[in-house]
Amino acid sequence: MSENSDSVSEEERSLFRPFTRESLAAIEARIAEEHAKQKELEKKRAEGEVRYDDEDEDEGPQPDPMLEQGAPIPVRLHNEFPPELASTPLEDIDSFYHNQRVSVFC
Prior knowledge:
The chain is mainly α and 106 residues long.
């Protein structure tokens, strides 16, 4: 049993993870959480608790240009890619997409 828990820990630490049904469920949960936060903010605005100019005007995270579709894997990640995951759908490693449904067709 410790072998299985060790492999799960290793998988959790790995940057490259297979895209599974659980991956999709986690993305959908993050989207729902973000949507709920947005609705709460809109409700507070309607009640006058938050003004538009009180918000941070930061545009938020941006996609990492080093991880752009079609670009080669950055050199710093070459040794981290497990060969057994070649030709396997992977979770996106760019944190910009952690709460977005994205389809990539090759």
